[in-house]
Amino acid sequence: MATPAGAEAAAAGGGGGGKKKLIIIIAAVLLLVIIGGGAALMLMKKKQQHAEDEDGAEAPAAAETSHAKPKPGTPPTFVPLDPFTVNLADKEVDRFAQIGVTLEVSDPKTADTLKAYMPAIRSNVLMVLSHKTSAELLTREGKEKLAREILRESVRPMGIELEDEEEEDSAAASKKKKKKKKAVESPVTQVLFSTFIVQ
User: Fold this and answer.
1) Is 141 helix (H, G, I), strand (E, B) or coil?
2) What is the 8-class DSSP label of residue 157?
3) For each successive 10 residues of the chain (199 residues), what is the average pLDDT?
4) DSSP code of residue 182
């Protein structure tokens, strides 16, 4: 009879040790889950704060230049337009220009958006070119002014209105009391000429 009583006591003692081990394992797993969740939460907060800091730091610079800034280390995307052949506005002789234009944008998504508006963009650029004279296009200043006008007209079909620099200067000189409008960010960062022939 002593044997069965000893066996029951041993079974009770062994079962208690198994329960203790189970409780320790569950507590350890819960502790690891809590620590892992806390670490993940802290990392997410740091990433969010870092992203907000970057956005806050880049926003004033982008507003001042009114051009979208590509992310450092990423090459820009180029959208070439078919060459334009236009009669110029010279009155004394018939002159024409053949001009190849490429638009530089910050990312491929913007390039796809521009391609969707391409007929309207080409029409706007043709209107600008047809009002130019050969004398205007032969100087460096004339080419730079044409690039600014093409930039302004290339984003107009998308509902983006950019101020011309000359208009901004004259408006600022005449009305200093009036608040300056917030600069609009342009998806086109630069206008490049691939060919430029005036005859």
Assistant:
1) helix
2) G
3) 49 65 88 80 74 50 42 82 93 92 90 92 94 92 94 90 64 50 78 93
4) P
Give CA–CA dist 129/142, Å, rounded: 11
How many C-beta atoms surround the C-beta of residue 168 within 10 A? 15
Separation of CA 138 from chain center: 34
Give, as one character, the DSSP assignment of residue 76.
-
DSSP string, 83-135: PEEEE---SSS--EEEEEEEEEESSHHHHHHHHHTHHHHHHHHHHHHHT--HH
Q: From the DSSP assignment, how many helices (H) and strands (E) are in the chain?
A: 6, 4
As a dihedral over the C-alpha atoms of residue 138, residue 143, residue 144, residue 145, rounded to 10 degrees, the angle is 100
- Tokens standing for residue 125: 């650029």
pTM here is 0.57
Report d(CA 172, CA 176) in Å as an integer: 5
C-alpha–C-alpha distance, residues 113 and 98, integer Å: 26
Which residue's structure tokens are 């930039």?
A: 151
Task: Give the number of other CB atoms < 10 A from CB of residue 104.
Answer: 17
Residue type, position 106, single letter: S
Q: How many residues does the chain have?
A: 199
